Amino acid sequence: MEQETTKLAPPRIVQGSALLIFGLGQRYQCDSNAGIPAQWDKFLPHFCAIPGQKGRVAFGVICNPDERGGYEYICGVEVDAFPPEPSHFSRLEIAGGKYAVFHHPGHISTIHATWSAVWNHGLTEAGFQAVQHPAFERYGENFDGRSGLGGVEIWIAIA
Q1: What is the pLDDT of residues 118-151, one digit of tens each?
Q2: Peptide bond into 86 cis (omega under 30)
Q3: Residue 118 gets which letter from DSSP?
Q4: Which residues of 8-24 are buried (b: 16+ CB within 10 A; e: fewer)?
């Protein structure tokens, strides 16, 4: 099982700032997120071309859950203000707060195993509990989208 084989380093604790995320959103069910790589392929031509984009960092945000176990996943960037175009892009304000930040050092294709480990044992082993708040992947400047390597951070809001 993934949660048994995926070893996690202890998270670092961060006081995160408020974020404005602008990007391509799509709804998924918890057991059917196979469309996320194609969603990134559609978003990437917009990366570094969005007015007001802050830095060269991308975000994969899990938000807006529903009662059936679905959620919205947004491939996006931080902006200083929401631009008007593309009008079909999602706009999300994430309040600042305290986060447990886990590092995913492997290939991006194995990030699901890290997410599973975080939810199944990583938070509780570190002595934390998640709060109702968007969770996100942070793809820093060291991440190489062509190779799928360079590391990704998983940010979980905690009490």
Answers
A1: 999 999 999 999 999 999 999 999 999 889 999 9
A2: yes
A3: I
A4: beebeeeebeebbbbbb
Please state the pTM of the whole predicted model. Answer: 0.93
CA distances from 127 to 50, 85, 95, 142 (A): 39, 42, 23, 29
DSSP 145: T
Alpha carbon distance 102, 122 (integer Å): 9
Cα separation, 88 vs 54, whole angstroms: 20
Inter-CA distances, 155 with 15, 21, 115, Å: 11, 14, 10
- The beta-strand segments (E) located in 7-52 are 12-16, 19-29
CA distance 59 to 77: 6
The domain segmentation of the chain, as residue ranges, is 1-17+96-159, 19-94
